[in-house]
Amino acid sequence: MRIALCQINPTVGDIAGNLTKHLEFIAAARKAGAELAVFPELSLLGYPPKDLLLKRSFVDDSLAALEELAGQTRGLDVIVGYADRNANPVGRPLHNAVALLRDGQVASRHFKTLLPTYDVFDESRYFEPGRRDERENLVEVTSAEGRHIIGMSICEDLWNDEQLIARRLYHENPIADLMSVGAELLVNASASPFVLGKHAFRLELFAAQARRFGKPIVYVNQVGGNDELVFDGNSVVIDGSGKLIATGKAFGEDLLIAEVGIPKLLKPTEPIGMPADYPPPLSAMPAASAYAGERTDMRADRMLSAPDSYEEADLEAVFKALVLGLRDYVHKTGFKSVVLGLSGGIDSALTAALAAEAFGPEKVVGVAMPSKFSSDHSIGDARDLAKNLGLNFHTIPIKDVHAAFESTLAGVFKGLAPDVTEENLQARSRGVILMAISNKLNHLLLTTGNKSELAVGYCTLYGDMCGGLAVISDVPKTLVWELSRYYNRSKGREMIPQSSIDKVPSAELRPNQTDQDSLPPYEVLDGILFRYVEEEKGPRQIIAEGFDEATVNRMIRLIDRSEYKRRQAAPGLKVTSRAFGFGRRMPIAQRYSP
């Protein structure tokens, strides 16, 4: 069967624009001779639509778009993602659904069974799970070779295999159930966000299930950035032996045409059902230990490797994810250009490089704002970076602005020694200037803080935290350095000044200041951060791995008490398994001390 995997980049809520994109891909699939076209999860709405789903008009408009799309669909079958109303008077009002469109009509509707409510997912807030009878998620399609029975599933339905998931979150396995009732081919419509290392686990998971049941899997994933999430595409087709036979682009739209061999064809007169030679139901399957050869130590909830093990492919994937997420966030919110502060340090340098790749350097404005404590090399590095990247560059000293603040507050602060307050006034002076440029010239302001700083609160509210998007807020400092080196290698020359990479990190808010005055080396901090935030390990476990006890306890205290700052931070792009933001919901007013 010739199948078109329509890997699209929808915009959340742009129902008309998404409808047009569907029609364009369907036309291209038809031209390529496809017999079936498959779109991602909630493709007409964009994922995740969040509380737009609570608006009746939004659901009405999307259902009208589905009917319009069906009316214009002929010549091939189409599977499209949408939100359907729950006809049952009890339960949540909607279903996460896919529809089969055929000959100008909605031929059938199929509902997602497993609704994730962990990390960044909150689907039980909106959706009622599908019915338990998996026969309702079987569809019959016809190709040049005959009739086929397809098992329909949506994203999470494919992620509950008891052989590979260390702790299953659901009691049922929709894929095993679909196979037990006669599916010859599995189609999965997904909106699966990027996490470093996740795609390798996807391939392992999908291949294991294909081998287990001897049936091919067609997985179609959304691509693009929607708010904090970046979707990497990487749609795949895996044959019944577990072999990867086709793969879509990473981080780009794609129309992937694949010839999929179906292991068994139904005779024209044979009804849909469960022939005797199909795999038995899950309850009759051998115990998990019988599949020990297919097991892995990787857990589905831990995708990121330890901070000292980044490979070139990892760096390329994270860099592309950040560029895509940045580009889509800016464009989908209606901006056309960006501005950011350039300190001469590595964080602002990497953020500027990402912006130049996302929009072209002519759409990026860099502003150096030296204070009386700024070193000559910092100003020079900022200027060199702007020149290397081709950015628009301005220098606006803040010495007089800072002095005016100090003078204005002198009466209130009389008799008090200077401290971090005066240091923060410098950062807040820069924030005021950058926000003014953003307002006047309609540039989106990018913040440049990394995950390590945000974790321990080494950032200033209403200062360097001002902005519309925190581009690298989920990138640990050690990874910032690695990505910067990767970028220079990929360009074949020094784009980010080597001096910015090599210099000792400093906020330069007082004479001879360095980050290591009050923080451990970033390799140590990031190791603790990874274990405490992403692996959810307690201090005893972290100390047992060789970290200094006093350092561990102090960093954990800093991480916990900085929650109030993170709650006020700009949204950031998620690239690790546990980002700060709506996927990590910690209380601010709390007194738990591990």
From TrEMBL:
Any single GO BP term: NAD+ biosynthetic process
Record-listed L-glutamine binding positions: 118, 192, 198
Reactions performed catalytically: deamido-NAD(+) + L-glutamine + ATP + H2O = L-glutamate + AMP + diphosphate + NAD(+) + H(+)
Pfam family membership, one: NAD_synthase
Domain CN hydrolase: 1-262
Domain of life: Bacteria
Keyword tags: ATP-binding, Ligase, NAD, Nucleotide-binding
Pathway(s) annotated for this protein in UniProt: Cofactor biosynthesis; NAD(+) biosynthesis; NAD(+) from deamido-NAD(+) (L-Gln route): step 1/1
Broad EC category: ligase
Binding site for deamido-NAD(+): 424, 453, 565
Active site: 41 (proton acceptor), 112 (for glutaminase activity), 155 (nucleophile)
A GO CC annotation given for this chain: cytoplasm
SUPFAM superfamilies the UniProt entry points to: Adenine nucleotide alpha hydrolases-like, Carbon-nitrogen hydrolase
InterPro entries the record matches: C-N_Hydrolase, C-N_Hydrolase_sf, Gln-dep_NAD_synthase, NAD/GMP_synthase, NAD_synthase, Rossmann-like_a/b/a_fold
The EC number(s) this enzyme carries: 6.3.5.1
Annotated ATP binding sites: 341-348, 448
An example Gene Ontology molecular-function term: ATP binding
Family named by the database record: Belongs to the NAD synthetase family.
Function (record text): Catalyzes the ATP-dependent amidation of deamido-NAD to form NAD. Uses L-glutamine as a nitrogen source.
The protein's name in its UniProt record: Glutamine-dependent NAD(+) synthetase
